[in-house]
User: Which sequence fits this backbone?
């Protein structure tokens, strides 16, 4: 199985030689297709942006990315439509990226928020107890009637989705609101 996943992301130049040296360089964290009109991303080139690979778009959204306006224009337009539905305005890119950045970072750590299970949209990521209920917390993709635990190896066997109580959400608040207002992320086939 190709471990690159379905999408790649861009946070600017975050590498030196073949080492990741910072979590981001720019506020514009985008999710791109693997190839666009014959162009393939540079890899490990000095001073060039560092391509990151995502299993699917739900993973990319949980990491704080949004669709690219160039290589994924129809998805970007759908994102803007859902953003406008969620927030009552169709933003320009810079204000949107500032809001996404504030929602995804708490200093050096990932910002998380709490929601009720009943308010979670398909495509969001949450934290659940690991296998057997007593294991390490693991991220899981929210689907209509189940959760699908995720690891760098991909999606695992589905578990029942709770229907009450609060949960810790990994997908940034604004992105979760966009999902709640109609944006449908591309999911890896193994999620179903």
Assistant:
């Amino acid at each position: 199985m190709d471990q690159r996943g379905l999408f790649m992301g861009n946070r600017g130049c975050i590498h030196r030689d073949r080492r990741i040296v910072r979590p981001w360089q720019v506020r514009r964290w985008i999710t791109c297709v693997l190839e666009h009109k014959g162009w393939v991303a540079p890899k490990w080139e000095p001073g060039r942006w560092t391509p990151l690979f995502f299993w699917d778009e739900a993973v990319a959204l949980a990491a704080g990315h949004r669709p690219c306006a160039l290589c994924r224009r129809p998805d970007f337009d759908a994102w803007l439509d859902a953003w406008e539905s969620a927030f009552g305005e169709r933003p320009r890119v810079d204000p949107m990226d500032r809001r996404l950045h504030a929602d995804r970072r708490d200093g050096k750590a990932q910002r998380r928020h709490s929601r009720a299970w009943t308010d979670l949209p398909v495509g969001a990521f949450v934290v659940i107890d690991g296998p057997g209920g007593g294991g390490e917390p693991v991220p899981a993709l929210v689907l209509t009637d189940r959760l699908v635990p995720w690891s760098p190896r991909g999606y695992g066997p589905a578990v029942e989705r709770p229907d009450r109580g609060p949960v810790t959400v990994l997908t940034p608040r604004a992105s979760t609101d966009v999902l709640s207002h109609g944006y449908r992320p591309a999911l890896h086939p193994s999620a179903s």
In short: The longest helix spans residues 73-87. Residues 36 and 71 are 6 Å apart (CA to CA).
